[in-house]
Design a protein that fits this description.
Two copies of one chain form a homodimer.
Chain A: H1 9-23, H2 35-42, H3 46-58, E1 62-65, E2 69-72, E3 78-81, E4 106-116, H4 120-126, E5 135-144, E6 147-157, H5 158-161, H6 175-182, E7 187-197, H7 201-206, E8 215-224, E9 229-238, E10 242-248
Parallel strand pairs in A: 3-10
Antiparallel strand pairs in A: 1-2, 4-5, 5-6, 6-9, 7-8, 8-9
The first copy, chain A, binds a DNA duplex (19 and 19 nucleotides) through residues 8-10, 34-36, 44-48, 50-51, 53, 64-70.
DNA sequence: AAGTGGTCTAGACCACTGC
DNA sequence: CAGTGGTCTAGACCACTTA
């Protein structure tokens, strides 16, 4: 036990456990001392033991399993390359963080295509005429090793996508972008805006997120050669499942 | 108050407050009902009221100020463009999220340059010979509107940077990359790997992070035309202060 | 059936903020 | 100085997991 007098009890306990985890005393996946263990070892009340564990959980280092115990979390992120076609041509695939190089199975779990009234931000970006009410929305959820990791909603203008294979669940070989190209609206430039934040309650549920796990929100905009926006794709990712990679030259 | 019987008391209270915030009843910066208010209004114990507020705080929606109250958080992120020189040439500056377009003052707050033994991951990336022990490390902290938002540590090989202006706190016009170019090691390609996670306790302190605020970790690698790595820059950003932007073409 | 974490109560003292 | 959030105690009952 640490001997820092000014620190709070629960912080001392949390620090002890944190250091023990980093020492390897509790490897990923292993069980940490529970509330009752801490109450006994440190002579504290239940709420104090809980607060120490809550600290580690909110840091994303541990996860509680009701009725079972508190466990050290494991991380196996995958690399998501923003520019796939460039990857590997001039630099190897190593990541500075431990991550899987080999492709793991990223599969579509749920898919739904519909015509919807878009939110204002989408309407503005797609520069819809005032009399156009609906857009095509392709919603998908992706799973990695059985766990949902990404929610995606792709918005496309009706006058381009309606009645095409883009409105099918399977957009065909090459996906949506290939269909856009065939229709004379090939996207040639992309913008991705990323931000990280804590999840909303419904995102916590749909991504099965443990406490202490942020999400990364990605807004991708696809431009044609004339500068027209033909797709806006809003994604929400389990931050613990992803490393986002961008390769670029300054000119 | 909601009337969902299955939900926990603290969740009902948290949902009420969350919805009131979204309705605009409590605008950003305003004060939320405190523990005592909730105890009275909902007839619950202090710990239950605390748990409801803790829920909103962990979601990043509110922040507690000791002795003052719990307040709705405000967000004013800035856009950080990964490829500055491309920005604006073919797409405008609008972000899908509310963010400042105009440049706000991003200043260096703390700066230190030193020769250090690098961590293994840096040693491997820089491909240092076994007898080379030290690298040049440029550490800086950036502040935005008086609040620290970014920690940066830039690692450069001694055989390139030692004795040059890179070892000065002010690396001169054009910065480190201009000096590298002058020395015949111009970086021509970059890789940025991003991941989001909850902060370590020391990051919470150095970035003055409220609870419920993730950090984004960025590892940038600079390559010369021959594929040699001449700089590794590890950054840690307050996720609530930044939108990360990448523009690219698929070929 | 025993043990675990999740929720909740009803108190207490403290340090800090704001007036 | 009154009010606030932060910490802590000592109980209680519950739903869940594991064996």
């Amino acid at each position: 036990m640490s001997t820092n007098p000014g620190e709070r009890k629960y912080q001392v306990i949390a620090s002890d456990l944190r250091e023990a985890i980093q020492r390897g005393q509790y490897p990923p996946g292993s069980r940490l001392p529970g509330e009752n263990d801490i109450m006994r070892d440190y002579q504290v009340a239940r709420m104090t033991a809980r607060q120490a564990l809550a600290q580690l959980i909110s840091e994303g280092r541990a996860a509680a399993r009701k009725g079972a115990g508190v466990y050290v979390r494991e991380f196996r992120p995958v690399v998501r390359a923003g520019i796939t076609r460039l990857a590997g041509t001039w630099a190897d695939g190593r990541s500075i963080w431990s991550a899987d190089i080999e492709d793991r199975e990223l599969a579509v779990d749920q898919a739904r295509v519909a015509r919807e009234e878009p939110p204002d931000r989408i309407r503005i970006l797609l520069d819809l005429p005032d009399d156009e009410r609906e857009v095509i929305v392709r919603r998908r959820r992706f799973v990695l090793d059985g766990k949902p990791v990404l929610l995606s909603a792709s918005y496309l203008p009706s006058d381009i996508a309606a009645g095409t294979r883009i409105e099918q669940q399977d957009a065909g070989p090459g996906g949506t972008y290939a269909r856009l190209a065939e229709a004379g609206h090939a996207p040639v430039r992309f913008r991705e805006d990323l931000r990280a934040r804590m999840p909303e309650p419904d995102e916590t549920e749909r991504l099965s997120l443990p406490a202490g796990t942020p999400v990364v929100e990605i807004a991708r905009i696809a431009y044609t050669g004339t500068g027209q926006i033909v797709e806006v794709n809003e994604m929400t990712a389990d931050a613990s499942a992803y490393i986002f990679r961008y390769d670029f030259s300054p000119e």
